Prior knowledge:
Blueprint: E1 17-27, E2 30-40, E3 47-54, E4 60-68, E5 71-74, E6 76-79, H1 80-92, E7 96-102, E8 109-117, E9 122-132, E10 134-135, E11 141-145, E12 157-160, E13 165-168, E14 171-173, E15 180-188, E16 193-198, E17 206-207, E18 214-218, E19 229-235, E20 242-246, E21 262-267, H2 273-276, E22 284-290, H3 308-322, E23 328-334, E24 338-340, E25 346-347, H4 350-361, H5 373-381, E26 390-396, H6 403-412, E27 417-424, H7 430-439, E28 444-447, H8 453-465, E29 469-470, E30 482-486, E31 493-494, E32 500-508, H9 532-550, H10 556-566, E33 573-579, E34 591-594, E35 597-599, H11 600-606, H12 617-623, H13 635-640, H14 645-650, H15 658-673, H16 678-696, H17 700-707
Parallel strand pairs: 1-15, 3-34, 14-35, 22-23, 22-26, 26-27, 27-28
Antiparallel strand pairs: 1-2, 2-9, 3-8, 4-5, 4-9, 6-33, 7-8, 7-33, 10-11, 11-19, 12-13, 15-18, 16-19, 17-18, 20-21, 21-32, 23-24, 23-25, 29-31, 30-32
Helix pairs in contact: 3-4, 3-8, 5-6, 6-7, 8-16, 9-10, 15-16, 16-17
Protein name: von Willebrand factor A domain-containing protein 5A-like
InterPro entries: VIT, VWF_A, vWFA_dom_sf
Domain VWFA: 284-461
Amino acid sequence: MVNVCGLVTAKQEPVPLKSIEVELEVRDHVATVVSTLLYENKEDKPIEAVFVFPLPGDAAVCHFSATIGQTQIVAEVKEKQQAREEYDDALSSGQQAFLLEESEQSPDIFTLSVGSLPPGESASIRLEYVTELAVQADDGLRFCLPAVLNPRCVSLAFQSSHSNITRDVTSVPASLVPYSLSFSARVSSPRPVTKVESSCSLEPLQYLDTERTQASVKLAAGHRFDRDVELLIHYKDAHRPTAVAEAGQASAKPGTLMADPAVMLSLYPEFPESVMSSVASRGEFVLLMDRSGSMGSPMTNSKRHQTRISSARDTLLLLLKSLPMGCHFNIYSFGSGYEHVFPQSVEYSEKTLEEALRRVEAMDADLGGTEILQPLKHILSQPCIPSQPRQLFVFTDGQVANTKEVMSLVRKNSGSHRCFSFGIGEGASSALINGLAKEGGGHAQFITGTDRMQPKVMQSLRFALQPTVVDISITWDLPEGVSVTVLSPPITALFQGQRSLIYAQLSGEVGAALKPQCLRFSLKPAEDSGSTVHRLAARTRIRSLETEGQQGGGVKEKVVELSVQSGVSSSFTAFVAVNKGSGEPVRGPLVRRDVPTPDLACDEEEHATPQQFCRDPLLQLVSLQKASGCWLPDPALAASLGKTSEETEKTKPPSANRELWATILALIWLHGVKVDAKEEWELLAMKAVSWLRAQNGNNNSHNNIITGPEPLFF
């Protein structure tokens, strides 16, 4: 047996990564993240350590440096092939080198290569990125530090063009990951911070000022890498629009984005209740469900919880029952291939609903991999139904190897549909989930930890049924001699719960302040206001240019130029650093070591067999509702209400027919017993009330049963 020294994987292979330290700085709606990774080579030969890891899909990497002993080497952004050649040349000559590059298939996957680390040597890698924080249903802002690349959800392998080696992700059980994580966060905003929540254990929140506009929090010791590190940050007056201005860099080339002031506008409107109460009665609803093998995993890292596919089936039941009469719908499911319930979308009726529910009940996580592109192509190639706007709901727990191709397809068809996406479980690709919603003009939701899928999906259905605000325009009232270049794509639609960030570059003779208007901000911010807004503005412009590049037009040179100027990563560039200071080449054969990522499925397999779950009484009641919105009087309904048929019959007024009374009893039960889950059943209850009113007509006795005099269910 060979004795192995130092950190090892489950296969007894040496691992050079010792620890990860993350510092989060939140500034209102955006964040700067600084990660420090400590490598140590305890082998007797030089190594190349390769670490494949995820970042948020909309993140912009803006700094990469390495410290070896007392020497710090700051990486430069260069055209990707040039950076790879410099890295390879350095390794060939025995020099220490570092390479950080974005995957060409998905913008949320990065590869960090640490080359020619001599025996006994340590290297500290500092990685900095900026990102926007997503708004959640309760107005909180979500930050997520992905814990896994999630190899169980997709067989991820990418071809490295500079080494001709197919790099597969190494994974071990989360409990055996041989490196530690420390995490701290500092939050500041013009508005008070009301609370910070997490699915992970946190130390108590510390306020840093009397106004509570600044706070700090830390991850409790002992994090096991069994889940993403997620923070939910809540501010007072969340819907108030804000503007953050940032001074340009004195050292930047005049006239460029980094030299001029930049501004970020945050729009998060709250619409009047009269607007929100109007619900559309038409539409084509296409539901696309992931049935890959990983959907058989528990919702959390425990076999004691419901599986993802089981929760998805329950969610589809609730969603289908809540659709309005008069709409059209269809259900697709995918894995390595795809299936559909109907050859094309059909009108919503009792017959089509029953067939759809029968097929949904039989769905399992048995379709193999995660190939979403082909079903999307099929769905979006179908002709639209006149006066039935298409709403696409996508459910997946994985990631795909062709994210950018998927985004391009959704973007190309954005004029004919809206896309609402749901990332299920730890490790779902943020680039895929956020990208589908962003390019499809919809809304993204993530279901992690102990989150329930149903309320988040129903919130998105309410968005889909509500009217959107269109024809949005922004007018800039600027002083004479000052011009503005908007860097963000135009806002085509906005609906309740959607936040939009707009980045702009200010040029000309910038004065002290903007003329009075609805939203006022300084045009001459402090010199030390940082670079977060500039970098996110650069990222926004780079993503737009990359999109144009996919459509032709030769914009690679523009992307490379802006990426180099701003120091922000792109698909055409990479960070490279070479230590040329020692002069002594590293001797000996170079050994490659892949740093393992945590595989949650491995830990899950070590636990008990999945448990069987009894159906929630709410879902049992929902399953009995008819497409029209009514309930029929039968023993199953009485049992779901916790009564016998005789007991429900005794309470019926003589003037009420049996279907009407059964429906009223169901509504009374919902409002009396399940009021805490109102967001889940509110839409189907509205459909039931509409049915009741349609049955009553001018029958005053029936109207009294529905509306009073006692408030039975309102």
